Amino acid sequence: MNSLQDTTTLHNGVKMPWFGLGVYKVQEGEEALQSVKAAIKAGYRSIDTAALYQNEESVGQAIKESGVPREELFITTKVWNEDQRNDSVLEAFETSLQKLGLDYVDLYLIHWPVKEKYKQSWKVLEQLYKEGRVRAIGVSNFQIHHLEDLLSVAEIKPMVNQVELHPLLAQPELRDYCKKQEIQIEAWAPLGQGRLLEHPVLQEIAAQYNKTTAQVILRWDIQNQIVTIPKSVKEARIIENANIFNFSLTESNIQKINALNKNERFGADPDNFNF
Q1: Contact status, residue 185 vs residue 10, Cβ threshold 8 Å
Q2: Theoretical Cys-Cys bridge with 134: which of 25, 108, 115, 261, CB 3.0 to 4.6 Å?
Q3: Quick one: CATH architecture of 7-258?
Q4: Tell me: the pLDDT tens digits for 211-248?
């Protein structure tokens, strides 16, 4: 993994960049437009949005204005819980596609495992995949038991599971399970929503490499074969976050970071959410 364009191959043969830009809580309009354009200009090829984020139009505009051919980009969006509950997954997909101004998305995810609904939603995603309207399909915030339940009825196995994952929530069992199932794991909030940037162990490791704590965490992701999508709206930070391909963490430093795991979530619990 030597550059921002390096990819992992999903189990259906589609190539997905190891590194991308997340746009959760990035304001629709100028903020989202400029941050996505800055990322693409800096060499990012993967952009992760969702219907919930309400910035798909700005992401789509940035894609158009970037000058980079569509086929070189990897665009992810997600279906929100309300559309699962209302059985309007297909309509939600059409809306996302229209807002993005695209003919297809590269990865479409079920955003959360809504009880009694996600298996039904998956059937719609499988249909979209068969029709070639999405290049890959997957899930987000699924625990092992959700995946086992889904696999009991799935015709097509999810290609990706995007979950909260950072050194304090390293998810080793889920990562092992996904690896066995050939489901690519992807980290949201890889920096613990900024809470890990002052962590003394991470700061100490960062100093050894003359890198930032963020760069060390993101490098830990990549070396652990975790796709990662840090969020920033500042161009300098977007560039800095991606400057992780010119060093490698030693095995002992990887183990030190692994040892920080406390199963500590900053986001919602996939087994107990009320939205």
Answers
A1: no
A2: 108
A3: Alpha-Beta Barrel (3.20)
A4: 999 999 999 999 999 999 999 999 999 999 999 999 99
Where are any strands of DSSP class E within the chain?
7-9, 15-17, 21-22, 46-48, 74-79, 105-110, 134-140, 160-164, 184-188, 227-228
Sketch the domain layout of the chain as residue ranges: 7-258
Among candidate residues 53, 108, 118, 129, the one labeled active-site is 53
pTM for the model: 0.98
Query: Minimal CA–CA distance to 27: which of 18, 36, 15, 19?
Result: 36
Mean pLDDT of the region 132-150: 98
**What is the number of residues in the chain?**
275
Q: Flag whether pLDDT at 2 surpasses 90.
A: no
Instruction: Round to whole Å and give the CA distance between 53 and 60.
Output: 13
pLDDT tens per residue, range 145-193? 999 999 999 999 999 999 999 999 999 999 999 999 999 999 999 999 9
In angstroms, the CA 57 to CA 104 distance is 14
End-to-end distance of the chain based on CA atoms, in angstroms?
A: 37
- Catalytic: 53? yes
